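> run fold DNA-protecting protein DprA
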Amino acid sequence: MQDTDPANPASQAERLAAWVRLEQTPGVGAVTAQRLLERFATPQAIFSASHLALRQIVSDSVARTLCEPMADACAAYLDTVRDWLAEPGHHLLTFDDPAFPPLLRQLALPPLLLYAAGRIELLSAPAVAIVGSRNATGQGVANARAFASALSTAGLTIVSGLALGIDAAAHEGGLCGAGSTVAVTGTGADRIYPRRNEALARRIAREGCIISEYPLGMKPAPGNFPRRNRLISGMCCAVLVVEAAAGSGSLITARQAVEQGRDVFAIPGSIHAPLSKGCHILIREGATLVDCVDDILVPLRVAPLATLARQPDTTVFLSAAQRALLDALGYEPVGADALAALSGTEAGALAAQLLSLELAGHLERLPGGLFQRVQR
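> ok
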């Protein structure tokens, strides 16, 4: 956190307290805070302004609140913030902090504060967001992890929302490469949601970075996540949608990216797969169709890797019967009866082969008794 007198801890503490107080002031939302800062430049100046000067911008009641001493509730919350900041790796970035993500400054309504845990230098690095379904297929998870790993190897930071499914796979892939990963949460930075991603979140806090615009202690709420999505797209130069249903929140993120002037990429899938519908909608709306990582790197003017094209063929370790069954399965969801007819395999032998291929990670069971091949 930068200050006009960085050598003076008291001055820095006063500056931080003013920013936190502004965020916590009742009646001062993002729009009002922006208007106040445009007029007075700093939170300290806002709280030093006269009631008459404030009344020109805000209501009488808000102006009176800003002129009064700090409320007890705000003072108590400020103590909570100080305790949190005392932990290693914890940061509170104000809008005027040099470490504040530069692309977020361009948003129409950027956050006043970002609570961050981890490597804040990643917030200024070139980044790509990877988003998609929480209820992802095995193929979608594999794609998200592979694309994230390749993009991270190319030096890009992977940004996502720490949700189950595609988000978690993207973070895992990002941690494998040189670029690492940033998780943007819809809760306070002191909370982990969902709990199933606790181990992943703790690793991101060590090797990547977790950020939130929400106050400490904020619990998950439905309205938090669509608002959070504008930060995921806003801090990146591009967004990749891996899997998404037609009504998915990932489409909201992609459309916000378009409004923010970011590139949007989408991975196509089967015309019969519900989780491909959203990607197909985006492609029809102008998103770039992606089937290898260089489809993203080249438009972003990053040196191509062709990483995914060079992955080894793991089917060489399968029996001839298993390979023939995979060839018959193809890449479309297929029922057991249709697969038996296609492959000419007896029902009992087919069930055993399907189970062995599933355990080896070469296919997955889908709802409705369908099977789908997973390209590893």
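The chain is about 45% helix and 15% strand.
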